[in-house]
Amino acid sequence: MAVVQNKQIIFKHYIEGIPVESDMELKVGNIKLEVPEGSGAFLVKNLYLSCDPYMRGRMRDFNDSYIPPFVPGSVIEGFGVSRVVESDNPNFKPGDLISGLTGWEKYSLITRTAQLRKIQQDDIPLSYHVGLLGMPGFTAYAGFYEVCSPKKGDYVFVSAASGAVGQLVGQLAKLYGCYVVGSAGTSQKVDLLKNKLGFDEAFNYKEEPDLNAALRRYFPQGIDIYFDNVGGPMLDAVLLNMRPHGRIAICGMVSQQSLSQTEGIHNLFMLIAKRIRMQGFLQSDYLHLFPRFLELIISYYKQGKIVYIEDMNEGLESAPASLVGLFSGKNVGKQVICVARE
């Protein structure tokens, strides 16, 4: 069998705060394009890789989470879109396109197939299968419809609203008949929210010295649904502005720069006073809804009812900087790495 070069991004050591590029390194080795007979495994060429905030949690020495930490000295793992090259598995044949967990490398040997999904190629960009039609899109779908329990006319607030998840939450809320405001960290992102993604209003939280006052300005009548991607001071301020029987979906805590020394929450008494339901969730709890999600979102996309913004970086070499950039808001939209076009 052919021997080819295989670039890999290696996780070097556990971290405490936000990741830096030197926590990862690029290694170049060789790989045989063959699969051990009887292994049930298959070899893929990775095309697109996803950068996601949850990956920071896997970079610390902590085993009490919903997903185990990375192993120092090993290839980083994440969601990707790949094409099968060689296979010892009858369910995955050479040429098949798949999405699911893979390595941050040019070629990966896949042995765990439980949550892999075959992609039926059409006119939707392949990279969308790690974004709009992948884990972030499904997180938005499950969080909004299942956790937020929306009603037509609800007042909805989304933080990190131009990111991979938030941009779809806002559009789904608008299609449901809600009033939607988003927050983001640059004027460019605010402009995208209002003029491309269809939010009713948006603001740059970095320009608001008083988040409580900002929310009172945008929601004088209060907030029914808060889709939280950031935690921290924004969540504290939201709790003061919720309406009775409001719902808060806790999706992410990107503001907590050091996960080993997280901040507490203020204003929790409002949960009682306003009878608010605040719930954390994982998209993996709702996988039975994935077929319904795909059907709806593909239909909306093809009808032009939703759009999706990607931030695409070229080459595996760009992966460490792309992941690190998530935590300073460098990305505009869903951060994707293009490893190979084919």
TrEMBL record:
Organism placement in taxonomy: Eukaryota, Viridiplantae, Streptophyta, Embryophyta, Tracheophyta
SMART domains: PKS_ER
Single GO MF annotation: oxidoreductase activity, acting on the CH-CH group of donors, NAD or NADP as acceptor
PANTHER family the UniProt entry points to: PROSTAGLANDIN REDUCTASE, ZINC-BINDING DEHYDROGENASE FAMILY PROTEIN
Superkingdom field: Eukaryota
UniProt domain Enoyl reductase (ER): residue ranges: 29-337
Signal peptide segment: none
SUPFAM superfamilies: GroES-like, NAD(P)-binding Rossmann-fold domains
Keywords: Oxidoreductase
Listed name of the protein: 2-alkenal reductase (NADP(+)-dependent) isoform X2
Taxonomic source organism: Nelumbo nucifera (Sacred lotus)
InterPro entries the UniProt entry points to: ADH-like_C (IPR013149), ADH_N_2 (IPR041694), ER (IPR020843), GroES-like_sf (IPR011032), MDR_fam (IPR045010), NAD(P)-bd_dom_sf (IPR036291)
